[in-house]
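hey m, so remember when u said the tokens were messed up on ur end? i reran from scratch. heres the input so u can diff it against urs
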Amino acid sequence: MPMRGTLINIATILCGTSLGMLLKTKMPERVSHVVIQGLGMFTIFLGMRMTFQTQSILTVLFSLIAGGAIGAIIGIGGYLERAAAYIESRFKSKESQIAEGFLTATLLFCVGPMAIIGSLEDGISGNYQILMTKAMMDGFCSIAFGAAMGFGVALSAVAVLVYQGGLTALSSVVSQLLTDAAITEMTATGGLLIVGIGLDMLEIKKIQVADLLPAIIIAPILIRLFPGL
């Protein structure tokens, strides 16, 4: 069955988020606040760990500059905020964390070597062991993030379907374009965006992470064009 690993991954995200939202209703507000702080600290740690994998600091720097400029011109953050506001109005939610939950979970679940390599292996050989392992990890993360940020985390399942499913469907082509170096710099660049989300969760600094998203695509392009950068 094609994309079996991705479908299992989506199921664990949805189940984990649902369980987390259920737990949130039984969680006192002060406990929820501390949980969010803990998740913010963990998010920064995870992002830094990913960023330190870089083998080309200049690639990460130029990716952020170029990607940020493109994202700001397009207005990705604005589109995401309007979409979140529409969803909130439809669900009559009193909270405004849908965009944050979606973006945080999407970056965590999509940026990283397991998502890329696992999807390619699933498409090329039908082996989805890597994605199975990732699915279990994402499921547990979804419980925590679902309790902290709610429904927006579940929406990340759509991004996982498009991203991992696309990589699996186009695995024969993508595997030739994404070298090990490209994957490393994509991961490192995405790690910095995750750090930005952590800073926002801790209310230290509001980072326009959505507008910086094109940086993840710019990184492998720079590696391809300037391998010695």
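this time it looks ok to me. The radius of gyration is 17 Å. if urs says something different then somethings off w ur setup not the seq
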